[in-house]
Design brief:
Structural class: alpha/beta
Low-confidence stretches: none
Distance between the termini: 11 Å
Number of helices: 16
Strand content: 15-25%
Radius of gyration: 20 Å
Largest sheet: 7 strands, parallel
Number of strands: 13
Mean pLDDT: 94
């Protein structure tokens, strides 16, 4: 049986990889490699069991570091893995340093690379993730684009060979996870929440957390919302809040980060979502929940064009203006596929290797 090495570095990538891995393993010997780029205590035995995927076969334990050190560490350790495993294909996801490192070393070793979530662009090379995704797309043999916009982006860069519009594996994972969440979590009851009776907030990007003024502005804005704000806090965000003794307004429920299934249950029942996460933006769209994205740009332009997502600056006034604006929610399209992206991707892989 031919072998595929899948490389992931963070919990969101495990979630994206889950539906694909479930199909891959019907046809190939998959070696799941966790670079250890991010440590997440919510990745417990329950997490893997509910996603119906095994624990990683190999953990590189690279850990947090500067971009250069982290990327170099992954390349060094992954090279040995690829030499030992001799895969027919390396599969990478998204735009992390793990994705960049895996695509670089696989390409240098003449191993084909399949990039899932290819073609996404913010058109801002000051964003680290933009560098990662642009380079990965240049090095990839097979490019699986989640949206038509992603295909157009690749075409405009002259990348037209082996580009496939398959839909978004995130949507596959969301449909699977939501069924599980509804049967295994009572988080709404525990938090005394009423469906459509609260706003959900999630802030984690360095641009919004490492900049104290930005984080202070965001929290000040959330404090002026005329509803309860549920705020599962990212460790990076918590560190800044604690070190600066930042006051949290009474309407904000600051709570530890929750697991994937509890989070999507909070998403699906929120009246509005405030985030700086690309994944949360499109989950909000798929769940038909209005969204405010606190970031200058988005690679998920469809969510903005259809009126469900609005971009705001990291200023109190900008966020409040967006919060109080009117959303036109009359358009909603199947930009992210039909929930069968994983099957389409594996069927294409079967044609080529």
């Amino acid at each position: 049986m031919k072998k595929i090495v899948t490389v992931v570095g963070a919990r969101p990538q495990f979630i994206k990889a889950a539906p694909v891995s479930r199909v891959i393993r019907d046809f190939y010997d998959e070696v799941l490699v966790h670079t250890g780029q991010h440590y997440d205590q919510n990745m417990s035995e329950v997490f893997f069991r509910q996603l119906n995927i095994p624990h990683p076969d190999i953990n590189l334990n690279v850990g947090s570091a500067s971009h250069g050190e982290q990327t170099a560490g992954i390349i060094l350790k992954l090279e040995k893995v690829l030499q030992d495993e001799k895969p027919s294909l390396v599969v990478v996801y998204g735009d992390t340093n793990s994705t960049l490192a895996a695509s670089v070393i696989a390409a240098k070793m003449l191993i084909p690379v399949a990039h899932i979530e290819a073609g996404l662009r913010n058109f801002d090379m000051s964003i680290q993730e933009e560098i990662n995704r642009v380079v990965t797309d240049k090095l990839s043999t097979y490019l699986f684009a989640p949206t038509k916009t992603a295909v157009k982006n690749l075409t405009s860069e002259g990348i037209v060979s082996n580009v496939f519009h398959t839909g978004d594996v995130m949507y596959d994972a969301l449909l699977y996870g939501l069924q599980c969440a509804q049967s295994c979590s009572d988080i709404l009851i525990r938090l005394n929440l009423v469906s459509r009776g609260y706003c959900l907030a999630t802030i984690h990007r360095a641009e919004n957390t490492d900049n104290y003024d930005n984080l202070r502005n965001i929290i000040a804005a959330l404090g002026q919302f005329d509803e309860r704000v549920v705020f599962p806090i990212h460790p990076r965000t918590k560190k800044v809040i604690d070190s600066n003794n930042l006051d949290i307004p009474d309407n904000i429920l600051l709570m530890p980060a929750v697991g994937y299934f509890e989070f999507i249950l909070l998403e699906s029942n929120a009246r509005m979502i405030v985030t700086d996460s690309g994944g949360v933006q499109r989950e909000a769209y798929c769940l038909k929940v209005p969204c405010i994205t606190i970031f200058p740009t988005t690679s998920w332009v469809e969510t903005v064009e259809d009126g469900w997502n609005k971009l705001a600056q990291a200023s109190t006034a900008s966020i409040l203006d967006t919060y109080n604006s009117t959303y036109d929610l009359s358009r909603h399209n199947s930009h992210f596929g039909n929930g069968n992206a994983a099957l389409e991707i594996v069927n294409i892989i079967k044609e080529y290797i």
